[in-house]
Amino acid sequence: MIYHIATQADWMDAQLKGFYSPQAYATEGFIHACKAEQVESVMDRYYTNKKDLVVLQIDERFLEAPHTFVFVAASKDEFPHIFGPINLEAVVEATLLKD
Fold it and tell me: What's the per-residue H, E or C state across 79-94?
């Protein structure tokens, strides 16, 4: 399993469109994701004081877009990168984070 932190608005939009593709994908060419043990540090690093967030649990066996783990020197760890929209069938759970 891999994980992606989304806004609740983007996740609701994805359900209407049938796939998830955040604005960052258009500008960066991939969707950032993380492993289970990285979720908390990613939240602390990038989402402090942000509200209405959803953690998407993604089963990469069902993910249609290419994906790979990329070593990030600043973090000294590998993070999953997804190179395309996330098909909704790959999202096995969406957990709304409490503010």
Answer: EEEECCCEEHHHEEEE
pLDDT of the residue at 99: 61
Residue 11 banded pLDDT, cuts 50, 70, 90: very high
CATH number of the domain within which 16 lies: 3.20.170.20
Instruction: Give the Cα separation of 30 and 81 in Å (integer).
Output: 6
Which residue range forms the structural domain that includes residue 27?
2-96
pTM as predicted? 0.92
Q: Which helix (H) or strand (E) holds 30?
A: none
Distance between CA atoms of 57 and 54, rounded to whole angstroms? 10
